[in-house]
Amino acid sequence: QLLALGLLTTIPDTLSIPHYLYGVEVLLGIGVGMCLSAGTLMVTLNSALGEIAATQGATAQLRPLGGFIGLTIATAFFNSRSEAALGSFLSTEQMGALQRSPLGALAFPPDVLEMVRAVYARVFRVQMRALVVVAALGVLVACASWERRAVGMERMNRSEERRVGKSVDQV
What we know:
Blueprint (H helix, E strand, L loop, with lengths): L1 H7 L11 H26 L6 H35 L5 H9 L9 H35 L8 H18 L1
């Protein structure tokens, strides 16, 4: 995931899509999928047997909440950076059309459209650099939480055996 985000900072501001970006998308998808599944597994392994459903529910609630917060921050960052850069060469009407929809730029003259594309690409690369920093912090946190004798499924199996053994003894 960190590698893919780093590669996304290299996107050129041209109309053609470089072929390597398709591989980057696959790499990013694999990285995100591994992070999500590892997070789910870690929550399960570090929960008491009777609390797994509640912790899985909390994880299911917090994952989209984090996405919403991240999307809000990224959108605010993109809007402030792009408006500051575009405000110097776009008219008020052009800014209004662009704020209503990015497709509004298609009606701009070719030289203005090229400047808008360059600004959007530059701001996107800055956003990707910020995500690289966030992902790198995640790697540091993961390394800091390393356990020499990690919790495994054996602990959960022993807990289940003890619970079943107690209920059999009670009968």
